[in-house]
Amino acid sequence: MNRGERLQKVLAQSGIASRRACEELITAGRVKVNGVTVRELGVRAAPGDRIEVDGQPVHGPQKPLYVLLYKPAGCVTTAKDPEGRKTVLDFLSGLGGRVFPVGRLDYETSGVLVLTNDGDLSNMLMHPRYGVMKVYEAVVAGRPKDGVLQTLRDGIELDGATTSPCEVAVLGTDGRSTRLVITLHEGRNRQVRRMLDSVHHACLRLTRVRYGDLTLRGLRPGSWRHLRPDEVAGLRRAAAAGRPFADRRRLR
Ligand code: URA
């Protein structure tokens, strides 16, 4: 069948989940088109096709929504938590539409989190190749020596692959703990915490203070706002350029 759009794209544009998560829904056999379960990713769907996910009808493309949430610590970055914990969606009352998180912050991590129903943008932003800049403030145990900071900058092997070069700066220390600013251009699972663990400086607190051009300015933990059109355009540019923004100041 060579008509319409790929099913995972149609699902993502309908606000079901990110494109990648929609692919997983398909391969898990949770999606039907015109009453027939689809498991292959090549299948297309056209206007008029009846699409269901878990037996629930999927409605057409939704009005695009782009949200910036100051994620507080103590909630999960998923739509539903099997353990019944608070989720990031619990903070978005009054939004009037369904969105899904772009990437993930750990339960204990706070900071900038983008949520959208724009599956294309989300897909680009989450792709490791696009490398949108992410800036974290981390409080770590002890006082990392210069050599340790350089090791973090140069790259550390995690799961058999070395992390890309990153920027690490010291904001201050009281000898027992130290505040670092870490700028990454990739987003592997629990990357900051695992990098810090591997140099034996446990991460005591972690906040993402910047994602591309987006910061926490004007927000408090748990509050959110819509992104302005220029901010959405900035994210698109960042994703497309592979390296974000003119502003690439070194934080060292
Ligand atoms: N790195 C981590 O370790 N955790 C996050 O939530 C984000 C980046």
User: What is the CATH superfamily label of the largest domain?
Assistant: Pseudouridine synthase I, catalytic domain, N-terminal subdomain
CATH topology heading of the largest domain: Alpha-Beta Plaits
Number of domains: 3
What level of helicity do the residues show? 10-25%
The first-level CATH class name of the largest domain = Alpha Beta
Low-confidence stretches: 243-252
Question: What's the overall geometry?
Answer: elongated
- Structural class call reads alpha+beta
Secondary-structure element string: EHHEEEEEEEEHEHEEEEHEEEH
Q: How many distinct helices? A: 6
Give the DSSP E fraction (strand runs of 2 or more residues): 25-35%
| Strand tally | 17
Distance between the termini: 54 Å
Rounded mean pLDDT score:
89
- Multimeric state: single chain
Question: What would you say the CATH architecture of the largest domain is?
Answer: 2-Layer Sandwich
Question: Sheet with the most strands?
Answer: 9 strands, mixed
Q: Compute the gyration radius: what is it? A: 20 Å
Catalogue the ligands: uracil
Task: Write a concise keyword list for the protein shown above.
252 residues; alpha+beta; Structural Genomics Hypothetical 15.5 Kd Protein In mrcA-pckA Intergenic Region, Chain A; Alpha-Beta Plaits; nine-stranded mixed β-sheet; four-stranded antiparallel β-sheet; 6 helices; disordered C terminus; binds uracil
Give a description of the structure.
The chain folds into three domains: 5-57, RNA-binding S4 domain (Structural Genomics Hypothetical 15.5 Kd Protein In mrcA-pckA Intergenic Region, Chain A, Roll); 66-128 and 214-243, 2-Layer Sandwich (Alpha-Beta Plaits), CATH 3.30.70.580; 134-211, Alpha-L RNA-binding motif (Alpha-Beta Plaits). Helix 1 (7-13) packs across helix 2 (19-27). With 252 residues, it is an alpha+beta fold. The protein starts with a strand and ends in an 11-residue tail after the last helix. It contains six helices and 17 strands. The structure holds uracil. Uracil (URA) binds at residues 105-106, 109, 190-193, 206.
